[in-house]
């Protein structure tokens, strides 16, 4: 097995796990937390979501690093080729969205994690309500973005399904 194939598998596994994590947050965790009492919310948010945020950062970082490495190996010196085909443009668009979402995980999501830690230590009904409201919006947006990334990368890998 070549290093490129190994990189591709690591990339696909990390991206798939990341996608699955975002689906789980949207369809299982946020609805469950929304139905809890305020005290249960604070405890659950503090125990689960900081770990989930770290896992998302690890998975997105792994997908980004392996993706950039494959990109460099495959297109080094020939980046203009990406603009000339549907597949190339899909890869560029997916990579751009992936980079943006990865940056979100590393730079903006920690702020939400800090809010959750504060709410766990000192349960405040207003803060917990704000956190749950953000958790209803942010993961949904993330699911839309990561869904677009998956679609674009599938098009980039296999072409348009015509």
Question: Which properties best describe this structure?
Answer:
162 residues, mainly alpha
Can you offer a commentary on this structure?
- The chain is an all-alpha fold and 162 residues long.
- 86% of the residues lie in helices and 0% in strands.
- It has one domain.
Give a short overview.
This protein has 162 residues and is mostly helical. The protein has helices at residues 3-34, 38-75, 86-121, 125-158.
Number of helices: 4
Shape: elongated
Q: What structural class do you assign from the helix and strand content? A: mainly alpha
Please state the average pLDDT score.
92
Described by its quaternary structure, the protein is single chain
Number of domains: 1
| First and last CA, distance | 31 Å
Beta-strand proportion = under 5%
Order of helices and strands: HHHH
Low-confidence sequence ranges: none
Main sheet specs: none
Strand and helix map with partners:
Elements: H1 3-34, H2 38-75, H3 86-121, H4 125-158
Helix pairs in contact: 1-2, 1-4, 2-3, 3-4
């Amino acid at each position: 097995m070549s290093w490129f194939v190994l990189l591709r598998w690591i990339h696909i596994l990390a991206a798939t796990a990341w996608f699955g994590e975002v689906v789980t947050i949207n369809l299982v965790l946020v609805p469950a937390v929304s139905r809890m009492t305020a005290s249960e919310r604070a405890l659950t948010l503090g125990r689960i979501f900081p770990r989930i945020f770290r896992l998302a950062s690890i998975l997105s970082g792994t997908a980004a690093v392996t993706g950039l490495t494959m990109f460099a190996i495959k297109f080094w010196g020939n980046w203009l080729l990406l603009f000339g085909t549907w597949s190339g443009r899909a890869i560029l668009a997916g990579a751009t969205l992936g980079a943006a979402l990865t940056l979100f995980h590393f730079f903006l999501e920690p702020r939400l994690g800090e809010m959750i830690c504060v709410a766990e230590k000192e349960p405040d009904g207003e803060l917990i309500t704000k956190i749950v409201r953000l958790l209803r919006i942010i993961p949904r947006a993330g699911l839309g973005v990561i869904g677009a990334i998956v679609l674009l990368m599938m098009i980039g890998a296999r072409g348009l399904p015509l």
